[in-house]
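Weekly sync, protein design subgroup
Attendees: M.S., D.O., the rotation student, P.L. (late)

Item 1: inverse folding check
M.S. brought a backbone from last month's batch and wanted to see whether the design step gives back something sensible before we order anything. D.O. pointed out we never logged the input encoding, so this time it goes straight into the notes. Structure tokens as presented (451 positions):
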């Protein structure tokens, strides 16, 4: 594997002991560079390998909908890892407390984790590092071109990072090695986790129910990818911006939880079709996703008005006192109780399905800006609703999408208007020109799961 994926977070004391892979963002056994690196170190050092996952309650407002999807995928992973004689252990509690304790209990020799640009994950790693004395590595297994290698600064827009990523793709877009059965794991007991205890430990919001239209796990992710490549990819460019069609890949929940690798998706897409036929899909999968990681890593105010560019803050500040024709509370937004049927349908889709069509998510967030008392309030509401109901919430793509819609991140200044200032505007008539609005409203008429 390419060494530029690997970063040494802490040198530590080199000593004998098990190799521990702290799985977090990339929750899969196959096509996982962090696992590949951990297994390679295990063989090189002739030490056992174990995978751990740290389960913490109340992660950024996630509900049983997201926890259920994640835990079912991890249960499948435990069974798959056992086939390779690899121990998979669920730890319950705050990572900075339970991981050092586990490291000490088994007298581990090295710790490896996967890359994540979100603040909370970086704090976990920082605080964990303070309590351990062994080497600690981070591997970017999520991005095709590693985030910190693609750019050393916050990029202005897609066009500024696209050239960098495309130039580096040949260096990183290579095939994965297959996992190998471990031969030296005899002293790490292959125990099954107590899943009843794990589920029972959750104290999360159970009112937002799990969805049944999509199945979690690596197997289901691979099946969804195969269906997309065989039946949708050729028409993706035409169908992707019409929310009445099922033209999108439906891979975002799997990519968010790391149950499938973006690199695997790209490799398989290119096997099916030449790059010119899959260009628009690969743009979203690679450039836009990796731009979001870049934004969240280099701009730690990614979820705040203060993280907007100066031009956007200035224009929004200049229009704070503008009269809003409608102002809605969080509760009214959440209950899909606005005056506009199209917006209500988008909120219904989010609540009932745990997803929202990409085009509608942009429109949805911009209307929250238009109908809120301030841009700060609009950003807070958009993030809250997205993270509470969407399977792929709490993700760099979500934070970046809200910042684009409300704060002009990765966009330019447009013609000035009330409330929005120079932030790009979207309206109902524009939607009517793009797709059958009435059909979309009919498809998402009722939100049975609303509180």
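Designed sequence read out in the meeting:
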């Amino acid at each position: 594997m390419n060494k530029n994926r690997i970063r040494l977070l802490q040198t530590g004391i080199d000593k004998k002991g098990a190799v521990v892979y702290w799985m977090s963002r990339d929750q899969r056994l196959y096509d996982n560079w962090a696992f590949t690196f951990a297994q390679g170190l295990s063989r090189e050092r002739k030490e056992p390998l174990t995978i751990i996952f740290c389960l913490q309650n109340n992660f950024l407002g996630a509900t049983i909908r997201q926890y259920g999807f994640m835990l079912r995928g991890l249960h499948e992973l435990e069974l798959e890892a056992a086939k390779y004689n690899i121990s998979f252990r669920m730890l319950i509690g705050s990572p900075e407390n339970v991981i050092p304790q586990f490291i000490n209990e088994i007298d581990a020799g090295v710790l490896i984790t996967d890359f994540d640009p979100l603040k909370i994950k970086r704090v976990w790693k920082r605080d964990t590092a303070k309590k351990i004395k062994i080497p600690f590595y981070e591997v970017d297994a999520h991005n095709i071109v590693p985030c910190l290698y693609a750019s050393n600064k916050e990029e202005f827009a897609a066009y500024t990072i696209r050239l960098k990523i495309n130039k580096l793709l040949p260096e990183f877009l290579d095939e994965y090695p297959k996992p190998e059965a471990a031969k030296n794991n005899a002293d790490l007991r292959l125990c099954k986790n107590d899943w009843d205890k794990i589920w029972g430990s959750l104290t999360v919001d159970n009112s937002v129910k799990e969805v049944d239209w999509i199945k979690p796990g690596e197997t289901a992710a691979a099946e969804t990818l195969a269906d997309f490549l065989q039946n949708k990819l050729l028409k993706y460019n035409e169908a992707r911006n019409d929310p009445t069609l099922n033209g999108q890949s439906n891979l975002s929940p799997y990519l968010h939880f790391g149950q499938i690798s973006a690199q695997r998706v790209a490799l398989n897409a290119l096997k099916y079709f030449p790059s010119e036929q899959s260009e628009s899909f690969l743009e979203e999968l690679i450039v836009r996703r990796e731009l979001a990681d870049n934004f969240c890593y280099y701009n730690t105010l990614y979820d705040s008005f203060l993280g907007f560019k100066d031009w956007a803050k200035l224009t929004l500040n200049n229009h704070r006192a503008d009269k809003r024709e409608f102002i809605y509370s969080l509760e009214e937004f959440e209950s899909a109780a606005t005056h506009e049927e199209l917006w209500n349908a988008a909120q219904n889709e989010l609540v009932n399905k745990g997803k929202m069509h990409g085009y509608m998510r942009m429109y949805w967030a911009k209307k929250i800006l238009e109908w809120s008392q301030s841009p700060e309030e609009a950003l807070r509401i958009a993030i809250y609703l997205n993270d509470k109901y969407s399977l792929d919430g709490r993700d760099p793509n979500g934070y970046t999408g809200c910042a684009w819609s409300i704060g002009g991140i990765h966009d330019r200044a447009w013609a000035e208007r009330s409330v929005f200032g120079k932030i790009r505007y979207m309206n109902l008539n524009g939607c009517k020109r793009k797709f059958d609005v009435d059909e979309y409203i009919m498809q998402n008429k009722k939100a049975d799961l609303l509180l």
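Discussion: The mean pLDDT is 95. Residues 279-298 form the longest helix (20 residues).
Action: P.L. to compare against the previous round before Friday.
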